[in-house]
Amino acid sequence: MAQGDLFRATYEYNVARQPVTISLGFEHLSSTGDVEDELCSLIAIEVAGNFGAQQNLFAGDVTLEGCTCRKLTGMPAAPGEAYSQTVAGQFAGQSLPSTKAVMVQHKQMTADVRRNGKSYISGIPESLCEGNNVINQALLDAFIDLFDDLQQFTQAIPAGTATFRHVVLSRPAANPNSIVGLPVVSNTTRNILYNAKRRRTRELGYSLDTVVP
After folding, report:
1. Is residue 19 a part of any domain in this protein?
2. Which of 47, 146, 156, 167 could join 25 via S-S bond, C-beta 3.0 to 4.6 A?
3. Largest CA distance in the chain
């Protein structure tokens, strides 16, 4: 069984035709039935669905694409992919450049880790910002809710169910060839815009088929 195994889910979307990615770690907690070969797909479906459901947070020049999930530990498994059914952002007006982003910090309780968990969200509506600050608290709260919904979730298919939790992926200094998942206990953000230039990536493309056999 894959209980305790770690996964990386990469969600991709476009801001004014510039591709952006957000990567999140997950740990498999439990499952029922015969879902061992579908775990990557189940995570991808959950992440793609959660981001796609928040289209009202993103400006009209944002297109929400999809998620690819890969297994990092345990027995090898094929990647899973899922597509966000709602494609375009629905907030009127243009977004800030893709290099400007809201940072959400994923807090965990382990000290002395090499890297804290952070997600940088681009596609912020220009009209909700003044200078380098977001002036709409409801937008920031909605981003927190998005990640809170991913903190622990269960996905179900006819073959069974699987439960996962959001973790910060880290490589211990004492053993850098290994990888551990540090459970996320809360998500926080600030109204400051951060520079996220290095997050640009190439277009990957996603399948519209999110049906798990």
Report:
1. yes
2. 167
3. 52
pLDDT at 115: 58
Q: Is the pLDDT of residue 192 over 80?
A: yes
Q: Which three-class secondary structure string do you get for the chain?
A: CCCCCEEEEEEEEEECCEEEEEEEEEEEEEEEECCHHHHHHHHHHHHHHHHHCCHHHCECCEEEEEEEEEECCCCCCCCEEEECCCCECCECCCECCCCEEEEEEEECCCCCCCCCEEEEECCCEHHHEECCEECCHHHHHHHHHHHHHCCEEEEEECCEEEEEEEEEEECCCCCCCCCEEEECCEEEEEEEEEECHHHECCCCCCCCCCCCC
Place of tokens 């990957």: 204
Residue 209 domain-assigned (yes or no): no
* Residue range 73-92: mean pLDDT, rounded: 88
Name the CA dihedral angle for 177, 25, 21, 68, rounded to a multiple of 10 degrees: 100
The predicted pLDDT at position 114 comes to 54
Residue 53 covered by a domain: yes
Residue 1 lies in a domain: no
Tell me the average pLDDT across 36-47.
Answer: 95
Average model confidence (pLDDT) for the chain?
87
Q: State the residue range of the domain holding 64.
A: 6-198
Decide if pLDDT at 190 tops 50. yes
